Every structure is written in structure tokens, then in C-alpha cells.
Structures
1.
Amino acid sequence: MSMLHALMLNHSQFEPPVLKRLQVPPILGHRSQIDESFQAPCRFFHLSQNVLSSRAHRVPTWKNLASIPFAARQEHTTVFLPPSTIAILGGIIPSNGSDSIIPVETVPLMQFYSIPDDTWTSRAPVPRALNHLNVAVVKGKIYVLGGLTESGNATTRAWSAVSDSWVYDPIVDTWESVLAMPLNEARGSAAVGVYDGKIYLAGGMTMLELFGNRTQDTVSIVSIYDTRNRTWLTVPKPAKQIPEGRDHAGAAVIGSRMYILGGRNHAQLNVKDTVFILDLCNLEAGWRTSDERMPTARGGVTAGTIGRKIYTFGGEGNPAAENKVFDEVEVYDTVANRWESVGTMVVPRHGTYAVGVGRGVYIPGGGVVQGGAPVADFNVFIP
């Protein structure tokens, strides 16, 4: 019996024991880049320079939290579920039975982490095993809008896009199907943002081959799902395509603007340093590229927001490191339009997601070697 089959027999029986509580940063508003409550639809948005500059003289720190239970994880998606829960969905775990060059298997697991208690619990799994899922939280519910799943055989193995979409209600611990992604727009690894009840998917990839040419089919398309009307919207032509294809990029929504940071285009080592910006109140204006580039071009990067700032972590495609993984932590001030280096990761990795909550950015799991090498490490970065 594989590890996955053992875990999925009954998710409720795998509740981990309560772990010793750690001192974690206080929750100051529980806001993240996908928390809709932070946004005032299409109104003037301003963050006080005085309030948000109070952190300037702090020395950044890392704190270790309870490791992901049961199995190390990579290529999962992480979201914040108010008031105090972090959820991780899908991804890949180590597999002794895999005949792939990368011995991993894709899973449908979903686990909740309690910030106040520093404990993990298992919840109803995603209806389909997926990695590189496109996930967002709107009004207390978790939406999964496509992703990548296993395809091919032992010699043609790949991860291919699916259009299946669902919504999860944490109160009753159940999933419900919603309208699938539009024809020819199925993909995983999209940059995801939420604004005014709508979920924005920008870029992504339709195929990632694990053998042969190792093709990575990157796309530039933009899709919008309206959670109120449970339908996919027609995207105005100026906003329908980002300036260039991107997958494995960082993403954030601050105020009424969506940001796509770094990522890669059609190849694992074709990493980028761009910042694409879209005014979500003026889609007709289309995307623009910031004149401020990331200090370190990287794909597989993860990003989390605190106030007006976007913190970027790790990534892969680093020619200077033996494991090809970046350890850089760099912050983009969206008001000052300026980048700054703020140290290095305590466990450098890629293939994970970060979420900003209160005054910390939480980063569970990821890969410590370019390609596949999942770990269970879980840390919070406090700038």
C-alpha cells in the first residue's frame, strides 16, 4: 500500500497529536494577498507612510513551526483562511513506489494549520489529486480552479492541465463542483489574486514533462471567475494577456492592483525578473511592466504580503548554488516602487507558497533541490 493510499483511507483518523505550543507572532488583522476583506472595490486606496514604516528598524527573524505531518510536501498551494488557519492543498510527496526520475506522487491531501495552537489537522481531500493548483479564498470558502495532474506512463510521464473546479466549505468539510475553466484555458501554476469577489488567474502552464524533452508549456492568458454569480467572465482584450508568458511566479493583490513577480517562461532555467501590474478597477488599461526589476531573477519563487510590501522568497534556477535553489529574501515596496534585500531563507527552497498573516509571512514545505526534493519544514518570516 502506498503512503497516499494509507493516508486517504479515512482522513479523520489521521489527526496529529497536539504539539507543544510555540510563540508565534500575534495576529494583527489576519490579512493576506487573497483575503477579500482587505479590499475596498475601486475606491481611492492609500496606506499611511507613518503607520507602515514603523517596521523599518526591526531585524528580520525566522521562527520554526510544527512541520507538515505525514509526508513532506512540494508543488502544493497555501492559502489563509480567516480568522487563524493556513491551509495547504495537493502537491507532491515522496514515493518509494514511483518509477520516475523524480520519485514523487501527486496527492489530493488538504491539511489545516492553526496559527494560535501550532497544530495540524486533516480535512476532506481535494476531489482530484493535483499539483500546482490555482487556489483562492473568498468569503470563508476555498476555491480550486484547475491545476496539473499525472498523465502519461513510466516513460512519458508528465503533469497535464485539468479544468475541473470546486469550492470547499470548511463549516461542513465538503467540496462542491463549480463551473469548469473555459475551453482551452485549463492550466496550473497561474498567478492568483482576489478582488471584489472575483478570482484572477494570470499566466500558468498547461504541461510539464518529466521525461524526454521536459517540455514546459507556459501561457500568458488571463481568466476571471466571479464567485458571486459562479461563472467565468469575459476578460477585456487589453487585460486578456500578460506581457509575456509566466508560470511559477509570485503574485499579490494590494489595494486594487495585482502584481506578478518573476517566474519563468517555457523552461526551468529561463527565469525572469519582471514585475507585471494590472489595475483591477481599470482592466481596459491593460497590463504594464514596472521599471523596477527584481534584484534576483528566479522561477519557483513564492511571495507574501504585509501592508504595502511584497516579500519574495527562494526559487530555483540558481547557477551559483549546488542545489540550484535561491536563498534570497527580497521585498518590493509597492508605494515607493523600490526593491530591497532583507536577508536569506533559513531553509532555502522552491515549489511552495507563502501567505502573509499579521506581521509574519508563513512558508510551509517546498523543495530543497531544483526539480523534486520535498521537505516538511515550516517557518514564519518576521520582517
Note: Helices lie at 3-8, 49-52.
2.
Amino acid sequence: KIKNKLNSLLSFHFLSVPLRLLKTKRKKLSPLHFFQPLGNGKGKCNSLSEVETTRLVESHSKAKWTNSTSNNQRYGTSSSCYSESTEGTRCRKLAETSAFYRLVYSEIEEIGWKHLVRSAGDLKSLSFRILDNKGRVHIMEIQLDIHYPRFPPSISADVPYIFDLRWSMSSRLRDLVQQFQEHLKKLEDFWSIMDDIDKFLWVVDPKHPSRAMAYRQINIGNDCYIMLSINSRDPRSLPECRFMGADPIVNSLISIWRRNSKRWIKDNPFLENLARVLETQLLRPPDVPKNNQQLECGICYAQFLPVDDELEPKSGSATDYTCDNSKCNRAFHSVCLGDWLRSITTTRQSFNVYFGSCPYCSEPVAVKINSKK
């Protein structure tokens, strides 16, 4: 859908701008006949070919423009010059826009349309879906200048820190995606540790962590909590910590932490190191009955849809679709999944059902449009 829209937009700019700017669309000129006087008072009729006629017309137009410019300078008039200058500036801007569209379009083709999630109408803002080696989905947002690639793009993503962009005039969007994938690879260990903390410890804050967050507040019992700040560049190193709770317990934990911090071994699992330094059995997350467990949507990352009249009857509803792949089992709002599938060019539609692939495991999924289940 996005691709078709950009195709039509690109076709318009490609056809209209160069013709107006370069004036390459010319009418066919018929041979020109004229009478040339001779020295004896007589004359003869000569005929010019189409090519010669064209050259004559062009030279006449050039002479006419030169004469007009000279007269304007002589009499102080500048309206014609201003008009031509304005038109020239406008055509140049249109030509730049056309070249920009063609370039960005071709570079999206190189990456693959299936990875494009969103794009602005002017193509200056693009969002790509990138998977890391662990199958996690990441959205990279790119902002382009009209003079791209002379000016490098700006990047934003849900990561703890962004990478230093390597860019030159010969760089393309696929190089940007490749650099982002290299950056994701560096962060895989960090995210694996954060996932283990969320899965095996009693995390009280944040309730809905983003991939950029590098802290966790953990319940360690006796109404005492520890705030861990993990170094995203060196996640296996000893984290910074802050204890919260009753003063006697906190003072004791601080003393134990300082005494045992040298026992932290980077090659050991993070949770094992944490339990050894604290000299305590870490609490696991409280059991939640499966039928009462609220799952976050894998697309909007929220448990519930917003309360909105446009979402009726799904307004405020929880996730209602789960991937059938047992190794994935990712939950979605059917509304979000339907919007996602509609934006992917490989999605098929049969009656009121979209058929496509899961955003996380790429296994087949099918969701009803405006499903009321």
C-alpha cells in the first residue's frame, strides 16, 4: 500500500519536473520557407530543414531574451527577470524533490518493502522493522534531509544509547540498517540479562519496561527493595545499586554489598552473582493465575487499548490474539495486528480476514478485520 502510493508520487515528479525544467518536450517544427534577396534585385526561395528551423528559433529566442534583459537594465525594469528567477527557483526545488524521491524509493527497494513500517508523505521520515539475532523486534526511525545524502540522516530507536553513525556521500540506507544491526548485536547480552531479571526476579518497577531502560527495582523481602542500574555497554559488570527500606536492614545490606562486591565474577550468570553478593535467596515473581494474567501487545506494548470511540467495540479491551507457534505465543490486540498486516505488502486478504506472518517468529497468522470476538 505504501509502495503503490510512493510509485504514483514518484511517477508524477519524474514526468513533470524534468520536462518543465529542461524543456525537452518540444513541438515538431515544419520546414521553414523564406525569401532571400540577391544582389541583382532578384531573389530566391530557400527552405530550411526541421533541425535548421529549430536552431533558428532557439537563436531567435536567445537573442530576444538577451535584448529584453538589456532593455530592463537600461530602463531599470526587473519584473521579467524576477518572474524568470522565481520560476527557475521553483523548478530547481521541484527537481531536487524529484531526485530525492527517486533516490529514497530505490534505497527502500534495496532494504525490502516488508521491513518498512511507516513513512511520511514526503519520505523524510521512515520507520523500519529490524530483528536481532534473538528474534526481538526493533523499530528504527530515520529522519532525512531534502539534500540527502549530502547531509547524513538522524536516527532514533528504543535502545539505551545510539551508535556513532559512519556516513559519506556514497552511503545508502542499507548501510544505515547494517550499522543498526551491528549495534543491536552489541546490545544482545544486555537485553538477555534484563529479560532474565524480568522473568526470574520480583520486579516492582518499571511495570512496562522499554528496551532503552537500564534499571530495575526489585523486591528482596522484608519490605526492602534494591534499585539496580545495569551498564548497557558492559552488562556483566557489577551494577550500581541503591537500597530502600527500613534503616537497620538497609545499613546491613549496604555493608554486605561493599564486603562482597569483589566476589562478582563477570563470566558467571548475572543472577548468580547478585545472589552471592547479597548473601540471600532472591525472590521470584509472585504467581499470577494464568486466566487472570494480563499480557502486553507485541505491537503497541500496552495491555489495554485506549478508550476511543473509533475502536468500538474494542475500546479499552485487552489482548485477544495469541500466535499459535508454541515457541512464540506472543499476544496481540487483533486491532493492532490487523493494522500491522495491512501495512505489509505480502499480506493477503480473503473476505474479512488478513493472512500474513507473525511480526516476531514469522509463522503464519490470520486475523479478522473488525473482529468482534
Note: The domain at 190-278 is CATH 3.10.110.20 (Ubiquitin Conjugating Enzyme).
3.
Amino acid sequence: MEVWLERWHLKSDAGDQIAASDVKFKEEIAPWKIILQNEVDFNEGEPRVSVLTLTSNITNSNSSSVYAVQMRSTANQTVPFKMSYTTNPLDMTTGVIYACVLLCGLYVLIIFEIINRTMAAVLISTTALATLALAGERPSLPEVISWLDVETLLLLFSMMVLVAIMAETGMFDFLAVYTFEVTKGKLWPLITLLSVITAALSTFLDNVTTVLLMTPVTIRYVIKQFLVNHMPLPYYNDFFLYNLE
């Protein structure tokens, strides 16, 4: 299937109903070729996007003109499709600038704790959608839903439920006390053991799961019961950041 854009330069006496005789001459661009699947009836469909740019070679033209989208296909069956267009698509450079401004705004809201970080993320994401709509690139609801990483969200939800259940059983308390007893309360052996355990878990689990499992062990007893009572605050912060890395 081929799709291309044409510009028809009309005669001065052309009416509302344009016929072939009303066109003085036309300009067109190279066609955009779309590969169709063989079994169209069993295809769920997928979006195709392209920017069609027509640069006119006519410098002085007093006649009116009309733009037309033409298409042709060699398929031997009916091909259903839905088409939407934007006359002035968002430029990539402008889009990058908008994205950087919104991202910097999100970091400002989170770092300075102006509002809750969850509300900050919701506010910036809504602003991003509004910016796309104002720029003429308003996404559809299915497209917005497709941006969600459902696998990561389900993984986080499941692991948080699992960590909450394991915390109720006292498993993290046991691991924290056991780690403290093995290292005899010494700082660097404690850091080394936690790092070794984290490295061992990382070979079998992904980073998100490892962080969710090791953070309660680090905070629940080791920091809360030992480091806070025996170490100055700067050393406590260094230890916490070291284990999160």
C-alpha cells in the first residue's frame, strides 16, 4: 500500500466541487510504502506513523491550492483502516525541549518536597499529556495505556505484598539479628556481609526484587537498633547509601 501527499493548484474559476479540469498543475511527494500482512482478517491491527513533508517549488503563485492525500494498494481484498492527520506536527527539537522542561520541573518538585512525590508525578504526567494536546499530538486512550509498563507494576505490587507478609512473620528481624551476631557488631564486616548477600541475590533475582528484600534487613534492625544508637549521623547516612547502591 502506498500513501502520498499532493498539492493541487486550482484555476481562478474553480468552484467548491473540484474536478480534474479545475486543476492547473499539481505537486506530489514520494509515496510512503506500507507493507500489509497476508492474513488481514486475523490481524489485530497496529498503528503506523509517518511525517509527509511537501516542499513547494513554486515561489510566486497567486492561485489557490488544495492538499490531498492519495493512496493505492495492490491487495486483492478490502483493507479496513482508520486515518488521522495533523497539519503541523510537533518538531522533534521542540518536543525534546518540552520534555526536558517537564523533567526538570519533576525533579524540582521531588527534591525540594514542594508536594508529595506521587502527586508530583501525576501532575507532571498530566501536564505532559496537555502539552501534547496543545501541540496537536494528543494521544488516544489506548496509546496512553500502552505506555504503562504493566509487567514492572505487577512485579512491584507482588514483591511489596510478599515483603509485607514476610515482615509480619519476623523473617527480616531474624536475618538482621543473625547478621549482627555473625559480624559481632563491627561496621566493615557488617557492610561486607550485606554486600555479599546482595551480590548473591542479584545473580538470581532482578535489581528491584533484591532492593525490596535487602532494604528491610538493612533498616529494620541493623540501622534502627545498632547504627542509630552507636554511630554519628553522617556515618549512618554513608552506610545507608552504600547498601542502596
Note: Residues 207-230 form the longest helix (24 residues).
4.
Amino acid sequence: MLKSGRHRVGEVVQVLEKSQRLAERSTERGLLGHLYNDLGLGYCQLRLFPLAVEAFLQALPLCWVPGEQATVLRNLGMAHNALGNYQEAQEFHQKAADLHGSVGQRWEQGRSFGSLAFALSQLGDHKAARDNYLHALQAARDSGDMKGQWQACEGLGAAAARLGQYDQALKYYKEALAQCQKEPDSVRERLVAKLADTVRTHLAQTSAPGRLQAPGGASQVEGTPAKAGSSAAGAQHRSSSGWEDEEFEEGHQEKKEERSANVPMRPGPGRLERPGPRAHFPFVGRGPPRAEYPSILVPNGPQVNRSSKWPRESLSRSCQRRPMESGICTIV
């Protein structure tokens, strides 16, 4: 139903609610964990993030395998990123990163680091965000995650710009641009805009050392991530474009970071980047997921990931990645 696009939101919600009622009667607790996780992913595609959080919380105690627990934790982080609950998102992504690392899931761990960095950036802790983007970049290199690499570089560029390290920002933006040649034109255009914005700001700072000038025309990011909504309510009503291939985790290409990558910003509710961070929300098989979070990543935000036993998937706004499947998936 979600993939066809021929059904109204109300019809899909009715089916999801019916599935949940049937699940509550089941005695197969192992399967229930997967089912609740899938319900959460369905609600994420509909941008009903509060309901997604409830479903993921029901899935969490039913998933005993570390990799599956990490996947659900990551999905929870993506959903909270989408709602602008960055403090909660930070905690879930940190736990997910630790669990993924404990079982050797380097790809998933890298995406979790990216989503964690996005949440930290939205909380205004750009040094911690930079450190976690560095972890995300190394994990992406270790696991051959090309998308994760350019997303981490983009996040590093934004963090460096906010810290006034413009030479570093230029370096990372250029690296991200060189690695995203197979991505849509919009990604490259965004990076070019950020590069130009950083150059202008750097020149302004150099010519007027005592003045801090805000760059103009900064663009938004989508992934490692994920675009988070500007408010909890807005997250549910945003257009699906907000959840893109960057997904949750992916998404983390932060919405706010994109808005003004070179100027310190106040934290505020954001949307899943395509993390995202995306959202990017992100988050399925052996190779990198195809969706866009975050690091839940449906639309622009996070991607969906499964535990090591399940293929990695990411939800995209129109199932750009792959159709949802049962099993433990994460929002990427």
C-alpha cells in the first residue's frame, strides 16, 4: 500500500492499526519484535513519528539479539531526530553505536555515529559533532560505505565552519563533492553552494577580523545520514521530500546545518535528513541501503537498517530504496 501511492493516509493507518491489534494477540514474542519494528517503519513513511516511537519502544524489549536491539535503538534515534527531540535522539544513537560496534557491525555503527553527530550539532555541541563525524568517516571507510563517506565529510565541513575552521571546512566540502559524483544533481549543487558560502565567509572574516558575518545563501544538507522537521508537529506534516535517500541517518545532513553551515546556530527541532543525522531517520542487506535520516529514514532522513541477519534497508519517501520487509530494519 505504501509503495503504490494509491491509498490515502487514513487507509494505510487503519491497516497498520489492525496489524498492531493482531500482533498483540500473538504469542510468538520473537516475531513480535520484528513486527513492531516494521510497524514503526510504516508510521515513519507516513511521517507519523510519535506513533513510530511507540511502535519502536514496543519492539525494543522483544529483541534480544544485540544487532537487532541496535537496529531498533537506531530507529528510535531517527524518529526522535525527526521530531526535533535531539537529546533523546543522542542517547539512542550512542547506545546503537556501542551495540553495533560490540558485534562488529561497522557499516551500521558508522551510520549511527553520523546520526549521533547530527543530533549533537542540533544541540549546539559542534566539537562533539565533529568528533562523531570523524568516527562516522572512519567507519564508512572501513566498511566501504561510499555514501556514508561523503555524508560524514559534509557534516565535518559544517562542523568546522561553525567552529570557525574555514580551511578545514573547505577541505571536507571538497572531499564530499569529489565522492558524490554518482548522487543526484541536487546533492552536488548543495555542496557547491556550501563551498561558495564558506569561501565568502572566510574572506569576510579575513578582511574584517573583528567582525563575524553571517554568510548568505547557505543551503541545507540530507544524509549520513537525514531532514528533520522544524517542530514535532511539523515533522508529521512535512512533505515526503523531507525523507530522502539520506534517510534518517542520512539525513543527518542536517537541516539546520544546511541552512547555514558556516554560522553558529541555535539548536531547534529539525527534520530527518535524507539522516541523516540522515536523515538522516536512514538506518537492510549487505550493501548500503537505498533510501533516504538521521540516519527512519524515510523521506530525507534516515535510512532503514536491519540487524546483521537482516538486509539493510532504508525507507525513502516513496520507497525509493526498497519496499519494506519484515524483519529488524533500521531507519537510515
Note: The CA atoms of residues 253 and 291 lie 14 Å apart.
